[in-house]
Amino acid sequence: MFLKSTFSPIFTAIPTRIKPPKHSRAVITDAAIQPSLQTVRQNASTDTAANPSSLLLVHKLPPTSAYIHLPFCRKRCHYCDFPIIALGSSSSSSTTTTNSDCDDPRILNYVETLCREMKATKLSSDPNPPLETVFFGGGTPSLVPPKLVSLVLDTLSSKFGLCANAEISMEMDPGTFDGVKMKRLLELGVNRVSLGVQAFQEELLKACGRAHGVKEIHEAVEIVKSCGVENWSVDLISSLPHQTPDMWEESLKLAIQIQPTHVSVYDLQVEQGTKFETLYTPGEFPLPSENQSAEFYKIASRMLRDAGYDHYEISSYCKKGYQCKHNLTYWKNKSFYGFGLGSASFVGGVRFSRPRRLKDYMCYVQNLEDGLLDCSEDSFTDYKDLAVDVVMLSLRTARGLDLKSFGEAFGGSLLLSICEVYGPYVESGHMTCSDEKGRNITSDEFSFLLSDEHKMNKVVGFLRLSDPDGFLLSNELISLAFGVISP
Amino acid sequence: MSSLYRASKALKLCRAAPTAFSSNYYTTRLSSTSYLDSILGWTQSAFFATHSSQNVKPSIDLCQYASDRIRNFSIIAHVDHGKSTLADRLLELTGTIRKGHGQPQYLDKLQVERERGITVKAQTATMFHKHNFLGTDTEFLLNLVDTPGHVDFSYEVSRSLAACQGALLVVDAAQGVQAQTVANFYLAFESNLTIIPVINKIDQPTADPDRIKAQLKSMFDLDPSEALLTSAKTGQGLEQVLPSVIERIPPPPGKSNSPLRMLLLDAYYDEYKGVICHVAVVDGALRKGEKISSAGTGQSYEVLDVGIMHPELTPTGVLLTGQVGYIVSGMRSTKEARVGDTLYHTRSTVEPLPGFKPAKHMVFSGLYPADGSDFEALNHAIERLTCNDASVSVTKESSSALGMGFRCGFLGLLHMDVFHQRLEQEYGAHVISTVPTVPYIFEYADGSKKHIHNPATLPSNPKQRVTACWEPTVLATIIIPSEYVGSVITLCSERRGEQLEYSFIDSQRAFMKYRLPLREIVVDFYNELKSITSGYASFDYEDADYQASDLVKLDILLNGQPVDAMATIVHRLKAQRVGRELVEKLKKFIDRQMFEITIQAAIGSKVIARETVSAMRKNVLAKCYGGDVTRKRKLLEKQKEGKKRMKRVGSVDIPQEAFNELLKVS
Predict the structure, then answer these.
(1) Is A394's pLDDT higher than 50?
(2) Measured distance CA(A345)–CA(A337) in Å, rounded
(3) Confidence band (pLDDT; 50, 70, 90) for B58?
């Protein structure tokens, strides 16, 4: 009854042939490498298949990461297009852990379904490696009562196993937790906090439709610090409407001052269907122009690096040793579980996104339990797709594309074609190149190597986007490789 | 008995025509081009309503119709003055097509035929009409040779008129004489045709036949008492039309006892029958099975089928002096059928008929596959299409920006548009077309002359000094309500026009004649004219001589590299303005890229306009949230696809729209 009045009553049937995640029992055999795709990896050495770190295999290994979607928010932020469930102001009481009577039945219901989904997920590898990272994303996971978080972690642990030193991250919003709740979560095993600060200016927070103010940010930081959370991140958004360079510098300065071990800087995307979309046009006032926006990115890169943060991925900075391990799973194209509304998983080489609407998701879980979903493993690997993913994901990182592994997996000639298309951009400084030991390769050396496939394969170690110019044009640059791999 | 025998023979002939012309065949072609209908009107259809239907028709014995019982006439009119409706009514009146419930279906078929036959212009329908002539009821054979209305096809009009001895000059009773009326009148007049003025649409509330009669008198010296007043819509006055045709228009003058001479009026390709030629028998007679030769090519053919358009192909086995009909002769391609050629009996000797001037290609443009790899597909599509539209000239060319493509010559802009549209709609070809150009002549210091159909082929920094250049001109007729005279004069002088004549048709309408460089009207003149006259201007032109002109080649350069497909030839005085416009336009369509792009317009090495597209600063999707890789990937795939549709010059990606937009700059 409650559900009915809250959520869209329209029932959308789930396609019957959804392929749920299921990972491979067998380590890749030759049969898995389709002969028709040999063209892409024609020069790949045959012993690659035996190398477990091969790019051809890594995504087929059983997952050791899980993403858990906790979709509840007090209200929807104006820029947000994630699958969330807005609870309204009534549940602000869940900030504290004490009055558990006030637990919202919507949350309880959801978490129960979530746990059912985890339980119904089939394991195909035996023994199953325990999880090394868990990420609670949302939504605002910090709105979920700790005892329900505990339920989720228990379920995960009993189903998949959980390493003793697993990284367990949780996105938390200022104003949604107090010291008691924070402590509770730490006791449960949460050991990394991603604090959704977004901006340090009252007017900007308001304009984004955030449910907290600057005061709550400082309180939240205080709680995190006093509870002794060692590994925590501050999330910021650049290019907000009416945001000036001064404001942006102020936000960065304040973020640096509170000394998180990690900072994520997201550039605002005006997404379809959001309130921002109806209000603003990218590049037009009050949104910053393309030039200003690029400037914001550069300011962040400069200030954070000057403050000792390592710009290890397009939008991520960290103090040494504090990379988000869970996110590295994504950039390395490793497999991961996904549970909950709208979440994406990558298991056994299959990417799958769950329904974004609660009703559809519930139905999906039911079908999963009833075994109605086609569980047959997609043993077919499209090597072009794989190569495209590898390039796209690894070029997001400062480490860049590991050319050696790429060449081994997909063939020297494809590697050479990619290097060729990037030649002008190494010259223009949008990309940089280094040998295996990290020594920089100049553009002259690089263009010389282009004429010698063999040498290229031997000498060149990594190709990466430069910071900040290359990162800023990452879409352009990455799509060039797309054109080479699957024209 | 003999008539029965003939009937069965005719029946066999009908059957011999493939019965596969089922509706299936037509429906596959049922796309598009409805706007063309209004331009070319009924004209396409009658001739093309070709195939013998399966209903057995009584065979027609043409032998009853000696040339004194034949009248060949056409209907000429300005667009929308009611030519198509009048033609339909005449066909109904003579029972050639059925009125009432049968007609919609007939028209359906016509529509399909219109799709097909857009560029085959001379259409004919044969009608039979009983008339009390010189005191006796006599059956006449009337050939209605219809003509297209649009200026691009005035060449086709004169072609059609060559088979006629008279013409109905249809004028709208409210709108009066318009530019095409004038142009078509003179074509008919110069062909020595008897002209019967028909003031049509007299049922309109604004009809003013007396004013129109006065116009006809002052413009063409036509006797007002000779004008027929009709309404093809209501049927009023229609009964006078055919009697006037029979009584006023002379019979065809040919000699029936002379050796056969036929004028090849037109040809088109039929997928089932092969080449179908449309002929007028000037002298002598033609029978099925006879051998004929072409005076133009020397080739000989056997006449496999001969007949009339009634309005569908109706085999008669014979065509006699003065008659107009079709022949099927086993030609393999329409290229063998030279329009204007004389056909005669093999082994006879005849003096070839005067024939026509070959079609003049007024507008040239490059056609390139939008996706470079589609060259073969485009090649195939163009080959197929030119089978039915021999008036397009096609030569291969290549461009550094666009790859392999074709340089096509067209009769005019509409013709070019139609051709593009058909390529896209009927053959699924995606094309980029370059800025249309007109044929120029350049003369160099060493006396050599170069004909330029593609500006890119004109050297930007020639070794030899250019001593003279010539450009084609047209004689334009413009008729407008007098209040617009001022703005039209301004427009024409902006377009380097020279006024030749300026008079008034009556108190409200001005008549002007201009000599205009063809280049100036090729792009947007007509639209501009329409817009400054609130749509009241009527415009027509005929091609005229070349005139000496101070022309320069205008190059467009991207980051210093000339884009061959964007080069254009302009008058020196306009180069600055055109250059600036082109550069500004391009700036709008070229997206920022990773490098700064300079866009320049240059004459030789002198840059006359310049714009800069600054480098793209940012194109990054920061979040890749919760590992949702698929979404980001889709975005990048889209970006890749976008790039694929671009044409690359040096390091610069040019979107296809940029090429098409440049067409709109004069």
Answers:
(1) yes
(2) 5
(3) very low
pLDDT at B150 over 80: no
**pLDDT tops 70 at residue B372:** no
Q: Max Cα separation, chain A?
A: 71
Contact call for residues B585 and B661 (beta carbons, < 8 A): yes
Residues A180 and A274 in one domain: yes
| Token pair listed for B382 | 């163009």
B104 marked as part of a ligand binding site = no
Q: Tokens standing for B314?
A: 């109706």
A393 in the same domain as A315: no
Which residues 233-272 in chain A show a CB within 8 A of chain B?
A: 265-267, 269
| b/e code A342-374 from CB counts within 10 Å (16+ = b) | bbbbbbbbbbbbbbebbbbbbbbbebbeeeebe
Considering only alpha carbons, which residue of chain B is nearest residue A267? B622
A412 shares contact with chain B (CB less than 8 Å): no
Q: Which residue of B has its CA nearest to A295?
A: B617
Both tokens assigned to A299: 């300011």
Q: Is B305 annotated as a binding residue?
A: no
B264, B338 contact by CB (below 8 A): yes
pLDDT of res. A443: 86
Q: Which residues in A lie closer than 8 A to residue B619 (C-beta atoms)?
A: 472-476
How far is the C-alpha of B280 from the C-alpha of B65, rounded, in Å? 15
Task: Please check whether residues B463 and B507 belong to one and the same domain.
Answer: yes
Highest mean pLDDT among A402-411, B145-154, B260-269: A402-411
Structural domain boundaries, residue B483? 441-549
CA distance A324 to chain B (A): 12
The answer to whether the Cβ–Cβ distance between B624 and A330 falls below 8 Å is: yes
The answer on B610 and B625 residing in a single domain is yes
Q: Are residues B132 and B198 in the same domain?
A: yes
Q: Do A476 and B594 touch (CB under 8 A)?
A: yes
pLDDT given for residue B539 in this prediction = 85
A78 has pLDDT over 90: yes
Q: Closest residue of A to B627, CA-based?
A: A330
CB nearest to A314's CB, from B620, B629, B651: B620
**Shortest Cα–Cα distance, B652 to chain A (Å):** 13
* Residue B604 C-alpha, separation from nearest chain A C-alpha, in angstroms: 30
Is B131 labeled as ligand-binding?
A: no
Residue B81 annotated as binding? Answer: yes
- List of chain A residues whose C-beta atoms are within 8 Å of the C-beta of residue B640: 479, 482-483
Verify whether the Cβ–Cβ distance B629 to A351 is below 8 Å. yes
Name which of A272, A316, A473, A484 to mutate to probe chain B: the one with the most chain B Cβ atoms within 10 A of its Cβ: A473
Complex ipTM, two decimals? 0.77
Give chain B's end-to-end CA distance (angstroms, integer).
Answer: 70
B152/B164 same-domain check: yes
What does the pLDDT read at residue B638?
A: 83
Q: Which tens digit of pLDDT belongs to each residue from A154-188? A: 999 999 999 999 999 999 999 999 999 999 999 99
d(CA B118, CA B415): 9
Domain containing residue A441: 389-485
Q: For the domain that residue B208 is a member of, what is the CATH number? A: 3.40.50.300
- pLDDT category at A12 given cuts 50, 70, 90 is very low
The residue of chain A with its CA nearest to that of B595 is A428
Across the strands, what pairs with A310?
A318
- Please give the mean pLDDT across all residues of chain B: 80
Q: What is the pLDDT of residue B156?
A: 62
Name the β-bridge partners of B449: B443
Instruction: Answer yes or no: is pLDDT of A268 > 50.
Output: yes
**Is there a single domain that holds both residue A151 and residue A243?**
yes
